Please model this.
Amino acid sequence: MAALTLRIDGQAVAVPAGSSLLAATRLAGLALPVLCHLDGLTPVGACRLCLVAIEGQSKLQPACTSEALEGQVVATNTAELRELRRMAVELFFAEGNHVCAYCVASGACELQAMAVTLGMDHSRFPYQYPLRDVDASHPLFSLDANRCILCSRCVRVCAELEGAHVWDIAGRGRHCRLVAGLDQPWGEVDACTSCGQCVEACPTGALFHKDDSTAEKHPHPIRALQLRRVHDLPPRPDP
Amino acid sequence: MATVGALPRPREPAGELAQGSPVTPGRQLRCCTASGCRAGGAGPLIEALRQAQAVADPAANGLVIKSVGCLRLCSRGPLLAWDGPGGPALFALGSTDPGTAPGAAIGPEQARALVLAAATAPGPDTLAALDLEAWRPQALLPEGSPSPGPSPVGVASAPPPSPGGIGLTWDQMDLDHPFFALQQPLVLLHCGWIDPDSIEEALALGTYGQWRRCRSDLSPEAVRAMVHRSGLRGRGGAGYPTGLKWDTVALQPPGPRFVVCNADEGDPGAFMDRSVLEGDPHRLLEGLAIAAFAVGAESGFLYVRAEYPLAIERLRRALKQAHQKGILGPGTGLELELRVGAGAYVCGEETALLQSIQGQRGQPRPRPPYPAQSGLWGAPTLINNVETLAVVPAILRRGAEWFAAIGTDTSKGTKVFSLSGAVRRTGLVEVPMGTSLRTVVETMGGGVPAAPGSPGGGVKAVQTGGPSGGCIPAHLLDTPVDYESLQALGSAMGSGGMVVVGEAMAMPELARHFMHFSVEESCGKCLPCRAGTVQLEQLLDRLLAGLAEPGELDQLEQLCRMVKATSLCGLGQAAPNPVLSALRHFRAEFLAACRAESPRAAFAREPFPAGPALGPLPGGRP
Ligand SMILES: Cc1cc2nc3c(=O)[nH]c(=O)nc-3n(C[C@H](O)[C@H](O)[C@H](O)COP(=O)(O)O)c2cc1C
Ligand code: SF4
Ligand code: SF4
Ligand code: SF4
Ligand code: FES
Ligand code: FES
Model:
């Protein structure tokens, strides 16, 4: 496999050709915040947390969807990027209803962890308190849309790995919402195999096992590893 | 009412117009039936005229009544252009009751009078003297009124108009007025002259000639080189060099390719593309066919927004006619298909548009890869705007150098603008690039009439580029209209919508209007645009409600920069532009809208502190 070298945060790194900038950053031993990205799924570039600055380009680029190129000079952790990420997390918290204190995912939530990492303890933007539903029609799992950040990981994991394509996002802009089947109660969607992968993939407490209560949602012990292995296959083209 | 004038004759190379084409018979009435005039009742009007001709005396038989595309001065519609001795001349039908569409109010007698006058008038002046009031429907005339005399032309003593009825006005427009005289139609060359539903008329004027020439005499490389040399840049907003884009598609590895015409025109106040589709659809089809030839595509799509039913109808008919004539379709090496949008502004963004054509949710995806590399079903895809494609046949016919001689150093050719808003003359103007805003808005458009009772009057600003653009204040009206100049002022050429803002408009209000548009049209895929625009609109709401403090303007600007720098597609990246440009040119109005800090107020609401991490964003990333 051809390799190429680039410089990330001052550090030279060699990566296999075709790697994403995100993979390159990780190979350099650096961490990048990601929310919509999940190894093994088609990257979509939706959360904008992994934006990096590439020398010579006026626009910031998402590391998850950008290909690493020979000789690139990339900055992933400038003051500007940190501030932009902080604002993004504020916007996430303000647009949904995230009450960590009684959330099933508290302690294992990627959004919560992101806020901690970025030092965001409150949102400067007014909370929107949207009216959203809870779908508890599935025998094993529930969807609490109040905690959904519309990352579409569940959509992709169900369509791309399980092949069931139960989830989709309906509506536009602030009216976007996750729907099961043809906008049916989840429990009525025959296509669902109850595999639980969407629950595993969900970065927040939006999808959870019914028998978990506050702070009891835990990441699957080996799922991330399995997905990483899928990810090591050649990158897929964008759909 | 001041009259403004006619439309210059198409400046065709000698020969093409002269050869006894169906377009220049002895006498004809060209009735604009495009969307603007339809709103004024152009549909019923042309029906009434045709019926009147059918029952009128044989003198009217020589008159051709035909439906044409936009005659430019849409605000005076329905418009009728007359060709005859001393013509052409342009007339506007109006009504004395602003709530009534004049075209729908015309009575059969009035229609008959009009048809007879058009068929017999020795010159435009006689036609201009036509007194429609004399032919008001009988029922509306007061008891005992004398019935109108037999001669429709120049009736000297008309009966008094009946009270309560709907009066019609009939005015001649001055074709020498700058509104018409300064236009240089390339894209709109035949718009307003030909019947868009007749391929024969289009063919008679040479349409499809360059498509034929491509296939018989030219190589794709030669065509691309010509477009390259012409300096043509995309008219869809970004101004990307068209020749370069064509080369990129053509030079992709062998395999299928697609061409797509972006006719989603969603910017508020923009109706240039619609006018091309409604007025001269064959020109667009020819341009698209040439593009397909140049990049080696054998199939293509036209993506038209659903809100343009008439454009869709005419385009569909044009496509069918071209198929029937064997100009496009099986055996010609090019299959074109029409796709209708479903009401999403974001589907004008090229990657969302391609998703939509593929039958998927219309959401943008990150670029690269650009559509030129990987577009429809993964194949290299050329996507161009309507106006970009419609000007291509002219470039081939007249030569790249001729085109490059029009316009400025960096922006070549002409640009069609749709002039709307508070301006006196609303309509369609096509002028060379580099024409100053003042010429377009004041000389051609007539500026803004002073509101009754208001001290001022006149233009306050011009909004260009719609929700992705910004406003240019009146004192900068001498700015030439080209891509770079507008961008330097924080606005954008956009697709060509020009909304003139009068003194009565508060700029923060205008900024909120556009932000609301972006809130509603955000596709919701990426966070900054989905959630950020909502917060921006609320900040503007607070400001307009007098609840904001001066410090909040910094927060407004900071969030604007965040949404601009981090959004996925052009919609989010440009959504803050109307706010930023209004802040840049009219900051005083924003400051005036803020209230002075009061401790009570600060207590009463959630504070927006400017803590250490909360200061303004460092760096000037655009
Ligand atoms: C939100 C958004 C809306 C757009 N709408 C249109 C449109 O309605 N018509 C259009 O031609 N281009 C539109 N564009 C620009 C297209 O993405 C694309 O740049 C253009 O069609 C390319 O054609 P051109 O090179 O001929 O300009 C839009 C872009 C964005 C980001
Ligand atoms: S449980 Fe499995 S099949 Fe059911 S929605 Fe989740 S991922 Fe899809
Ligand atoms: S339910 Fe979870 S995984 Fe699915 S979109 Fe919402 S936050 Fe993402
Ligand atoms: S910027 Fe707005 S319209 Fe574009 S992808 Fe993001 S949410 Fe969708
Ligand atoms: S992880 Fe890259 S945009 Fe979300
Ligand atoms: S639509 Fe009739 S003049 Fe423009």
